[in-house]
Task: inverse folding
């Protein structure tokens, strides 16, 4: 399983997202250091990568926590929803673990 964290320099929350992702991987019995971290540097790359904001987590090339259709691509901060409905700059840790578990079981994100 390939796990990537895509980020943009202007995003202050990518380090927290990386720590949460590594913890979720550890919880699921995976090597937390296997996360590939890639910086998105310009709008052209954001378009090519289908980057919907920082941080974005991909599992086997698919967004682990897909956004709504019509989400704008580009260099911006991404907003997630926690399980209680509050907005957050990082994914809910339980949602991360669930996405990893689904991917390990072969269920697409």
Result:
């Amino acid at each position: 399983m390939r796990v990537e964290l895509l980020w943009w320099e202007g995003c202050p929350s990518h380090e927290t997202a990386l720590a949460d992702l590594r913890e979720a991987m550890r919880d699921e019995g995976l090597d937390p250091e296997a996360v590939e971290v890639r910086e998105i540097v310009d709008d052209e790359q954001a378009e090519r990568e289908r980057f919907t904001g920082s941080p974005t987590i991909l599992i086997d090339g698919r967004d682990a926590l897909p956004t709504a259709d019509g989400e704008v691509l580009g260099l911006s901060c991404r907003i997630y929803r926690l399980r209680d409905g509050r907005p957050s700059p990082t994914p809910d840790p339980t949602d991360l673990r669930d996405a990893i578990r689904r991917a390990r079981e072969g269920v697409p994100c």
